[in-house]
Amino acid sequence: MADGDLTLGGIFPLHYKVEMPETDYSKQPLTAQCKGFDPRAFRWALTLRLAVEEINQREDLLPNHTLGYKIFDSCFTPVTAQRAVLAALNGQDVAHSSMCSGAGPLLAVIGESGSSQTIVLSRTLQPFEIPLISYFSTCSCLSDRRQFPTFFRVVPNDDYQVKAIAQLLRKFGWTWIGVVTEDHAYGRFALQGLKREIENTDICLAYHEMIPKDFKRERVLEILKVMKRSTARVVVVFSVEGEFYPFLKEFMTQNITGIQWIASEAWITASMLAESFSFLTGTIGFAIRQGQIPGLGDYLMTVDPWKYPSSPIVNELWESLYSCSPSPSVPSSRNSHLPPCTGQEKLQLQHSAYFDTSSPRVAYNVYKAVYATAHALHNLIVCKPGSGPFDHLSCANISNVYPWQFQHYLQDVSFSISGENMNFDENGDSIPSYDLINWQTGPDGEIQFVKVGFYDGSKGAKDAGKELVIQEDSIMWPGNQNKVLVSVCSESCVPGFRKAVHQGQPICCFDCIPCDTGKVSNETDSVDCTPCPEDYWSNAAGTRCIPKAVEFLTHDAMGVALTLIAVVGACLTVAVLVVFHYYRNTPIIRTNNSELSFFILFALALCFLCALVFIGEPTSWSCMLRHTAFSITFSLCISCILGKTLVVLVAFTATRPGYKVMKWLGPKQQRVIIFSCTMVQVMIGAAWLITSPPFPSRNTQYQRSKIILECRVGSDVAFWCVLGYIGLQASVCFILAFLARKLPGNFNEAKYITFSMLIFCAVWLAFVPAYVSSPGKFTTAVEIFAILASSFGLLLCLFAPKCYIILLKPERNTKQHLIGKWMQ
């Protein structure tokens, strides 16, 4: 304690646990005893004292005024912290020390390190409107100005820390993590913030466990069992070192290896843990920004039992550092059973928990907090009446400053310290900034805290995602490895596959399913496969879209075969035509109407040749030509056969007495019949071409992996009318030929016409279902096959018997032989 014109309170966890006395409720219980001296927290308290002394010696800051201080021990528990702040308000001597006692006007309190204790302190001070400036309480809940209107802090709140941790997890691909927290507000709010940050990302929590407030070995063993069974290799820990220490002692006994620890700022620079647990090598986490405190190392060395012989705190420091008791007669000494020592032992650099001033962080925050109060008080003192911030532009009365007046100036304070601009935002928070710390083994085998990056939370929206900077080559991972540890629930899905989440499990646990045909994924861990454009299809690996294969009846093996068959059929037809022309004066040709035979052969040659139009890439002209040529040539052929059938039928019935029908079926009448029947088909075809002609089409639906080039008929009605008309002609011809099949004669052509029409109708009746069901180019092939088959049927049935007689049985090619049976 030190007196001054203006007094600050300081509350520090000089001990990290409280031993509650047993009670039987029959007598008044004893006071709880603070146990476990914390040299680091004592260094923080001495930093406050150093800062106050520096300020009191400066002439540019608080001139003609001095600061005083009162320091109390919170013992790192909310109840003891509340007792400490009440003592600070009431002036009670709870610490029993000349360093930590006394009374005076209290304008602000600097404390505490734990968020749970800080919540209690802030709510206790709130009715008095006394500002509380925390140096190490990071819970985001404290930024709520409605609940904590007098709270300030010089350390970033956990909202920024969890953002930094989430970026760190994404950076190294750690998507399957465990979280261990302390069972206090700090741990609970940090967990909520982390869940909020990883929501809608590919990071999942494998488990979340809380270290119990009151250490219970059974519960800790349950937590360790979960960690051992889990496949998560990365564990994020939000806890202070005091509660994490006993947990780690049990962890050592369970033979759990391969863990990558992610530390919160509460323990990332805890020398006590680093000195006690070598397996923590490779730990990485974010520490609050370090700064420089001039003269702190020398100042710490001035504290010894000779200078403060009656101070139990100094005695406990010596007991902690040297395991000896410099003043066993001091009543409050907790370890009077220790061997005595002189108290003149020299502080050594190896006492890092107390003497580590190379990169002060929490102590630097204490230093900033003291200077923030000093600058705010300075602005209050230099206020000039008539330009003040209060009613009627008045200033505060320096001899009677109200805490709420001081808070006004504290809210607006702005100054520079160690090259850092210091101010508070509207929630009482300071600028968020972290150092990324990695625990590495030094040359002497001791763990060192190495800075391997930083996080700048002050970056604006335009730099979102660029706050974290990491020097990856400088990181040493667990087991002194240079390779990043993998922590995933399921291995990544390579391109060509998509993720399928297991039902009832986190999204990080999935199966890799190959993309369906026609869909691709060209990225790792694709959630879904992307359909290819209409003219593209997926490759075999499913990684990219390639142009679809274009299919039509071209001059491949099938096309060449059909072409050869069509050419052979046309050549045979021409050959028969030559034979008939050469033997045109023989009886078998003369008696069977040679003119109609020549017409039929000409029409058949066109039928064979029109099949060639169906082969090749469909175009507008070829589509129109193939259907009209096919319909007209076949209609012409059937019309000629129909005329021949009528002539045969009438020729035999006209010989009966009284019949004069033959005069109506002379050559001219026959031509008229052929022309009329053919013109009907020509008119149907013309109407088809005018109204809705056939057109080329790209069919991508029938076979998704190919583009089928085909000719659409345009009008289905016209297409079936064309086929129907040919079928009608063939049916009429078949009926007439069937009626004339038993007419006398050694060569009854009506029989062969009947058989040819039977084949023709069978072929085209089979064509309809085959045409409808055949895929792709086979549809065209079926149509060509029907044309060729029916043409060969007509050619062979009508002309093969005559050619046989003409070429092989010339003795039967006589008039007597042809009509012999009839004459008999």
From TrEMBL:
Subcellular location: Cell membrane
Membrane-topology annotation of the record: Multi-pass membrane protein
Coiled coil regions, renumbered to chain: none
SUPFAM superfamilies registered for this protein in UniProt: Periplasmic binding protein-like I
GO cellular component, one term: plasma membrane
Pfam family membership, one: NCD3G
Keywords: Cell membrane, G-protein coupled receptor, Glycoprotein, Membrane, Receptor, Signal, Transducer, Transmembrane, Transmembrane helix
Transmembrane segments: 557-583, 595-616, 628-652, 672-690, 717-740, 752-772, 784-807
GO molecular function: G protein-coupled receptor activity
Family: Belongs to the G-protein coupled receptor 3 family.
PANTHER family xrefs: CALCIUM-SENSING RECEPTOR-RELATED, EXTRACELLULAR CALCIUM-SENSING RECEPTOR ISOFORM X2-RELATED
The protein's name: Extracellular calcium-sensing receptor-like
Species: Chanos chanos
Highest classification ranks of the organism: Eukaryota, Metazoa, Chordata, Craniata, Vertebrata
